[in-house]
User: Fold these one by one.
Assistant:
Number 1:
Amino acid sequence: MNVVRGPGLIAERPARPARPPEPAAAVAAPPAVPPPPQEPADSGVRLLAPDGTRVTDPRFAVLADHDLCREFYSSMVLARRLDEEATALQRQGELVLWIPLRGQEAAQVGSAAAVRPRDFIFPSYREHAVAWHRGVPAAEVIRLLRGVSHDGWDTAEHNMANYTIVLASQTLHAVGYGMGMVLDGTVGSGDPDRDGAVLVYLGDGAMSQGDANEAFVWAASFGAPVVFLCQNNQWAISTPTRRQSTMQLARRADGFGFPGVRVDGNDVLAMHAVTTWALEHARGGGGPVLIEANTYRMAPHTTSDDATRYQPAEELAVWRARDPIERLRLLLAADVAAGWFDEVREHADDAAADLRRACLAMDPPAPVTMFDNVYADETADQRAQREWFTAYRDSFL
Ligand SMILES: Cc1ncc(C[n+]2csc(CCOP(=O)(O)OP(=O)(O)O)c2C)c(N)n1
Ligand SMILES: [Mg+2]
């Protein structure tokens, strides 16, 4: 629409006064980042030391027996191998993007193993080992990242929501789900076959989001059965955790009025013991818990990132010496035949080959399917857009 503005219709805007110069402090560089917390005092609850020896913690006992320890080991080796394969697939142009989990296998497998059938998981976007440990087929985790689907797996079948890229939004979904469980009477009934809880994963960077902090308030106020599991992998892309928090993240729970526990996130036994306790606390009606898994991302943020630009090599070396898989291997090596480790490796290689085959067999969907499932019922606007799009595509034939 053309608007003709005659003289006098719009008052002449008075000249703006010149903006005062910025005070020096506003443009000064931020203060230096304090050094990272030092081991061992800050490692959190630990039941297995980096050298493979067992340690005790007065609050938590090891809950995993020998068979479960072997299962943890197999699951972590499998996750690392599939992660490597997916990274290679992305480098070869077969995936749009990959989000590596290397280094976080214990934090994910140990916590996922504490989940019971009536619990529900809300992941962020890096929790592939959680999904795989819970039985989500490997290929279903990569569908989204191959760009052939808007989602991943059947959330109802696996009691696990799909990934969310919007940082911390899943914490609100988790609290809403947990509040629903309270209303359904499936929390604190005392019946283990009836009660459930929610396990929601978020990163150290996501802890700074408003959504996460709102979720903490709601969960505390309504006694929602939610275990917030923060994988503090020391980095939010290139921003170190110590830039985002001057205190241990687990301590933030104090201010919201629920328990917070820091755990050695590279210790699968500690992750399993603490998450088991936290989920039981939530299922029993005790309300939320925050777990901070102190771990490290031994890979770039995604395949689009170059972590060598900001992760100091010395820091990486320190965390390599705390590798979550190696420490469990050292523990198991005392009474497991060497051949068993080879079998685990071969099984993981086979699974990686299967993943590659499944990935290459995933054909792109018909473009018009992007209009499907936006709403339960198609709106008139959507129908018009779909019809226009179909006619446009057909005009090329
Ligand atoms: C609301 C929102 N803001 C910014 C981003 C961009 N972003 C994607 S990942 C990321 C860093 C997240 O770090 P962290 O929470 O520590 O998780 P990590 O990637 O280390 O697992 C950022 C800033 C986003 N996805 N969503
Ligand atoms: Mg992080």
Number 2:
Amino acid sequence: MARSSSRYRPRRPTAARAPQRTRLRKNDTVEVITGKDKGKRGRVLSVDPRTGRVLVEGVQMVKRHTRANPTRQIKGGVAERERPIAASNVMLVCSECGPVRIAHRVDEGGGKARRLRVCRKCGAPLDKKG
Ligand SMILES: [Zn+2]
């Protein structure tokens, strides 16, 4: 059923929920795999481990109708903003294979064991640095 109102209804606050482990990090490139923005790609702007949601550039845009408030330099009109999307609805994009699941590899270089995220298909490292 189509949404009858364009008004965004915030979810009930997620009170005292255990933080969720997300495989995603800020500045990851992800592809949306479900929902109205399916197929869209964007950069992760922020990750909220409390709600398990991520903010993705250009995805899940909503229009906010704001009233002008000159004392606080707020312009009126309709502004478009991203809303957080559930991390389970996006997949990290491998530069070779496209959207992939993430595997981990322990790298013991330099005496310190580090957990690296790698592509499950081709094994290429997915972390930009290091
Ligand atoms: Zn790959």
